[in-house]
Design goal:
- The longest helix has 17 residues, at 42-58.
- This protein has helices at residues 28-38, 42-58, 114-118, 148-159, 193-204, 207-213, 218-224, 246-255, 258-266, 274-279, 297-304, 319-322, 325-338, 359-372; strands at residues 9-15, 20-26, 67-74, 80-88, 91-98, 121-129, 134-143, 165-173, 176-187, 236-240, 284-285, 309-311, 345-346.
- The protein is elongated, with a radius of gyration of 25 Å.
- Helix content is 36%, strand content 24%.
- By secondary structure, it is α+β, with helices and mostly antiparallel strands.
- It is built from 14 helices and 13 strands.
- It has two domains: 9-240, 3-Layer(bab) Sandwich (Hsp33 domain); 246-372, TIM Barrel (Alpha-Beta Barrel).
- The strands form two sheets. It has a ten-stranded mixed sheet with strand order 7-6-3-4-5-10-1-2-9-8, sandwiched between helices. A three-stranded parallel sheet has the order 11-12-13, with no helix packed on it.
Length: 375
Amino acid sequence: MLMPRNTDAIAAGCCRGARFNATCVDVTETARELCRGHLCGPAASRALGEALAAVAFLAVDAAPGERAILRMNVNGPLQGLCVEAASRDGFVGLRGYPHRKVIAGLDESEDPRACDILGNAASVQIALTNETRRLHHAAFEIRGGHDFSAVLSKYHAESVQRPLLVHVATSLYGGYLNFARAFVAAPLPDADPAEFDRLQTCFLDGTVSENLDACVSLSDLCAALKLDPPECPPPRPVRFHCGCSRERVLDMLARLGPAELRALAADGAARDIIEDLIETGVEILDPVQWRCPGMEREGLARDFGERLVFHGGVDNQQTLPFGTTDDVREEVLKNFEILGANGGYILGPCHNFQPVGPPENAVAMYETGYNECVY
């Protein structure tokens, strides 16, 4: 599953006057795309969205290379789920899946409740790991009505042994996930118990829920709760990240049918997944459709030229079929100058030659490369 980056983020900071750490998590776009990719119905979408928001919070302090994993087995119709948040250089990568994707009866409801989806008993496992070993592991049971706010509260109480105020929320609209967010307020050891009680009231009376619904920033949410402005670094972007091996990616592609492969090939705006492709071992990018959004040659060369060979790049939608031989020559030289700056450019069209294109343009492309583009 290859998905674009989005505006999801984790914002965390310290309200020093109130002696509280505050964290706001928004995983809406990532959760939507994962739900679409897994073909989840409304009930599974709600559970997966809340689980992703919860596990993103668990990774808020993770160093690059560390990850938080949340697994749940429940006695409700969902049966269970598994989600993961991995701290990468510059972003937090999410992935996950529910055990059941379509739940008859609940999917027909306009607003299925978490307790109906999850049931009244759950076995929870939370692990923090890095690339070589497990850093922390917790396993516990939850009985009675529960949701992911309860999961985080119990985990924090047992692992840190301090109370936690948390609200994990999702909304459905027309059977689709509308948002998936969380807000967490964690008191520092010297926080005033009266301030904790006051904030707890804001969680119980709907103040936090209303502001999460409105998609306010962390600073706005703290202001609504009458907290001093949080001191915080820039928010950390959140997006889908699988990190599958090269073999698994190739196996996945081998299982796709002709129509699905054509759909992948037809979308040349691949900028948002190039980093993922490099991490799986890809060394040559083909095609290079530089007229697509985000695929500008200068940006590709700047960000990936040291790690990728670019193959193609001579436009076959405008230049080759409808341009002159001079247009073709100019584009070949420009590609060589920009994409070939580090020696990593293989001349070619960005796709198959189109029947409407004059043969002399194809000849001009190769002659220009042969005669004028020499390292």
